[in-house]
Amino acid sequence: MRVNGVVQRLDAGYAWVDVSVAQGCGRCHEPGGCGGVNLARPLAPISRSVRVINDIEARAGESVGVVIDDRVPLQAALCAYGWPVLGVIAGAVAGAALAWDGGRDLLAAGGALAGGLVAAIWGRKRSRGLQQELPMRLVRGAEEGAGVCGQ
């Protein structure tokens, strides 16, 4: 995925790039467009600064593209949604397996809650590790239609 941005400042081999969070692909308002940007607008700021290794020697004020490895959104979705869902299922199964005759539903619900909570905490800690050095790189020039949402 590629988003456009402007280099705000340089810092020890890194460039701080102000990227537009809600660029979208240009089809968000058309029939058949994903509309994902419209959902995120009320919840997210208009722009965000990201730190990227400045291997192209960009200068402050220069328009650049920030390219993010395609596997990053999938990993983020797995950490945010996949692990907690698996934790809920595993916790419910474990709770039901350990339950006595009259308390099966109660222990299954408690196990589901505990499993989901543990998996969510684990996924959050794992996602913080991913945020330290995201696989991003700078490319010269802004590109029209950057921020492609897959449509």
What is the 3D shape? elongated
Percent of residues in beta strands? Answer: 15-25%
> Averaged pLDDT, please?
79
Largest sheet: 5 strands, antiparallel
Helical content, roughly? 40-55%
Tell me how many strands there are.
5
**Annotation field: number of helices:** 3
Gap between N and C termini = 12 Å
- What's the gyration radius in Å? 21 Å
Structural class category: alpha+beta
In N-to-C order, the SSE pattern is EEHEEHHE
Give, in spatial order, the strands making up the sheet with the most strands.
3-2-1-4-5
Describe the structure.
The protein has 151 residues and is of the alpha+beta class. It is built from three helices and five strands; from the N terminus they run E-E-H-E-E-H-H-E. The chain has helices spanning 36-40, 71-98, 104-132; strands at 2-11, 14-20, 47-53, 63-68, 136-140. The protein has a five-stranded antiparallel beta sheet with strand order 3-2-1-4-5, with no helix packed on it. Helix 2 (71-98) packs antiparallel against helix 3. The chain is elongated.
